[in-house]
Q: What sequence folds into this?
């Protein structure tokens, strides 16, 4: 199965998922598409998020024969995962279920926090995924609409950023029994040190990217789709926005400067 | 999908996997069978392990309609997993791949240790599973034949036990770059505190049971096999050996005293 894995995201956040797939599955090839031009998806109506997500999928499948689709965006997963999974003939992995499953592995108090975009939190997708598996879970959810713009503007380590994060996360501090916090947005791992500091070391953070890559590994194996060729995989990166911006953030995240092409996907 | 998940093991070690399935997937029903009479499998020839494992599977499938099989024994997984996976029409989960995948998620140095029975270590099944995914991994393997008898004799927390463990694990101490150790036997989580102490807090331990239960969760979901009934699940426990012994160890592990029945499985 020499075809690539397609990874789509509203912008650069999904690069944290792509990075984890490269790290955990170094033989696999990736085709990445970020819809930076219309990022963030978080505040948009569900129908619009669905439409944009389908445009990304159509673009990828027209230009590449992908063996699996990873929706590396929590907002898009919350809005469209079930629909897409039913419609496609290849395995589809979202970022919500892997994060929920892993939180249930890690949490002992069964009081689990979730932070995400307005769209993700409003959808209650995490809550539903957690309760589907264990109906004794208590979930504390918090929308953090300031966080994605901080990442997309590449403003990660300033004091201003830390202050914004701390102020928002203070709203979760009443929940003393909480022992696990799901980073319910693929941008948030880029703010992980600041989030860990703000929450305290007692709280275990669940990184969607790490857990999604693990699920990709499991599903590739059980569907007999793992790549067997041993040649070095070549990845491809596309954005609907600034190629240079994705190259800069990509370089910080991936350890090499990816070659990014700008494409149009809204012509259908 | 109201059918139970079948869990088989050479003895009581697989109860750590069953416990994790109950914890992470509290809606699922389990049928457990431990071949205590012929435990340990570790030192036995591969062909014999295969034969005994098939006898357990035949017994379970004759008496219960299971929707998934979990081989909760590293020795049996190493000896027979591929064969069983090909032969059965239900999903089959072993304990080796989940542990290997999780180690690759956790390790940063890519130098990974594996401890297990003589059979598991001799099979090189972990090494193969790790290298299948990432051929830059360095694996240090060590057989610990004394560990299973310590657990099966319910002799967990004595000073003698700790001394035995430390003495054996000292053999791994030359490998300074190692940052992750796979507990490649489902009995070993019962010795986890002693193993962690002997290895030092720097080493991340991978518990086959936790990771296998996570993989059960993922595969149930992607194969549409999760249980949907909300009634409290009732589990069943069988052993080929002493029911009382499994009840005693089960009580320590599961938090309640299971009702265990002794059965014969070698009549075919």
A:
């Amino acid at each position: 199965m020499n075809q690539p894995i397609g990874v789509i995201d509203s912008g650069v956040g999904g690069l944290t998922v792509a990075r984890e797939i490269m790290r955990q599955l170094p033989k696999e090839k990736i085709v990445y598409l970020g819809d930076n031009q219309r990022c963030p998806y978080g505040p948009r109506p569900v129908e619009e998020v669905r439409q944009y997500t389908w445009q990304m999928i159509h673009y990828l499948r027209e230009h590449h024969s992908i063996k699996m689709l990873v929706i590396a965006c929590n907002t898009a997963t919350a809005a469209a995962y079930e629909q897409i999974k039913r419609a496609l003939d290849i395995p589809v992995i979202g970022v919500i279920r892997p994060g929920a499953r892993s939180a249930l592995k890690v949490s002992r108090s069964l009081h689990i926090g979730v932070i995400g975009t307005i769209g993700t939190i409003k959808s209650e997708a995490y809550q539903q995924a957690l309760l589907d598996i264990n109906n004794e879970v208590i979930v504390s959810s918090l929308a953090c609409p300031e966080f994605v713009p901080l990442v997309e503007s590449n403003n990660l380590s300033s004091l201003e950023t830390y202050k914004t994060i701390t102020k928002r996360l203070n709203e979760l501090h009443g929940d003393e029994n909480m022992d696990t916090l799901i980073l319910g947005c693929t941008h948030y791992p880029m703010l992980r040190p600041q989030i860990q500091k703000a929450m305290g070391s007692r709280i275990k953070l669940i990184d969607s990217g790490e857990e999604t890559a693990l699920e990709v590994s499991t599903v590739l194996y059980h569907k007999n789709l793992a790549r067997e060729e041993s040649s070095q995989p070549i990845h491809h990166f596309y954005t609907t926005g600034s190629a240079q911006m994705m190259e800069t953030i990509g370089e910080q995240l991936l350890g090499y400067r990816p070659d990014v092409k700008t494409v149009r996907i809204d012509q259908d």
Summary: Chain B has eleven helices and ten strands.
